[in-house]
Amino acid sequence: MADKDKEKMTIVVFSGELDKALAAFNLATTGASMGMDVTMFFTFWGLNIIKKNEGGIKSTGLMRKMLNFMNRGGSRRLKLSKFHMFGLGTWMMKRLMKDINHPTIDELIAMAKEMGVKLIACTTSIGVMGLGEDAFRGEVDNLAGAAYFLSEARESKVSLFI
Amino acid sequence: MKADQTLDCVGLYCPMPIYRTGEKIKELKTGEILEVVADDKGIKLDMPAWCKTTGHEFLGMEEEGDEIKVYVKKTHE
Would the pTM count as exceeding 0.95? Predict the structure, then answer.
C-alpha cells in the first residue's frame, strides 16, 4: 500500500506520566502494525516523555530554570499518575512490566520509529518552557503547532488525546 | 492446521503479539500461512481485528490448554 493510501491515526500526548505514555505508545505501535500512518503530537507535560535522559536541560530566566529543574523529564524519569509513592510504586510497576516482558518506554520509542511513527513536538509548549531543540531526543522528527496537528487529525480515522 | 512459519508469543502481552505479527508477516510470501502461538487471551479478538484492518486473511484459531494458536494467511505484500 502506498503511504498516501494509508489510514491515518493521530495522538495528542498531553500527559507526561509513565502509565499514560505507555498507553500512547502501545496504541501508536499497534496502529502502525495495523498499517496505519501514525503521528504522535507531544505537547505540554507530554514533552517530558521525549526529553533527553542525559545531560542538563538548558533554559533562560529564573522561572524557566526553576520549572525545568523541577520538571526535568526524560523517558526514564517518568512517574506513575497514581501510586508513585516517592518512586516506590513506579519502581514496582517497572518491575512488573519487566516480569511480563513488556517493553520499556525507550524500547517502545525505538519500535515506533522503526515502524515509521512520526514524533512531533509542540513549539508553543517548547516556547513557554524555554526549551531548545537540544532538550529533545534525536527520534523527534519535527516541531509543529496546532494547525499541523489539526490538518493531520481531520484526515485521521483515529484521533486520541492522552 | 499446517503453517509455513510459526511465531512464538507465549508470555507476551498487548501490543507485543500484534507488533511481532506485523513484523513477521513481512518475511512471508503471499499465500503463505503464519501460525502465532500466544497465551494472552486478548489475541482472540485482536488478531481478527488486525486481519480486518490489514486485509490479511484470518483462518481461525485453536486452543490447547492455556495456549492459543491463530492462523493468518498473507494475502498481499
Answer: no
Q: Does the CB of A101 have a partner CB in chain B at under 8 Å?
A: yes
Beta bridge partners of B73: B33, B57
**Strand-pair partners of A38:** A9
Give yes or no for B75 touching A (CB within 8 A).
no
Domain range enclosing B33? 5-73
SS3 assignment, position A83 = coil
pLDDT band at A2 (very low <50, low <70, confident <90, very high): low
Confidence at residue A40, expressed as pLDDT on a 0 to 100 scale? 97
Cβ distance A35 to B16 less than 8 Å, yes or no, reads: no
**Residue A147's pLDDT is what?**
86
Q: Decide if B14 contacts A30 (C-beta within 8 A).
A: yes
Instruction: Identify which of B13, B50, B55 has the shortest CB distance to residue A100.
Output: B13
* Domain segments of chain A as ranges: 3-161
CATH node for A3-161: 3.40.1260.10
pLDDT in tens, A143-162: 998 888 998 999 999 999 99
- C-alpha cell of A81? 499518575
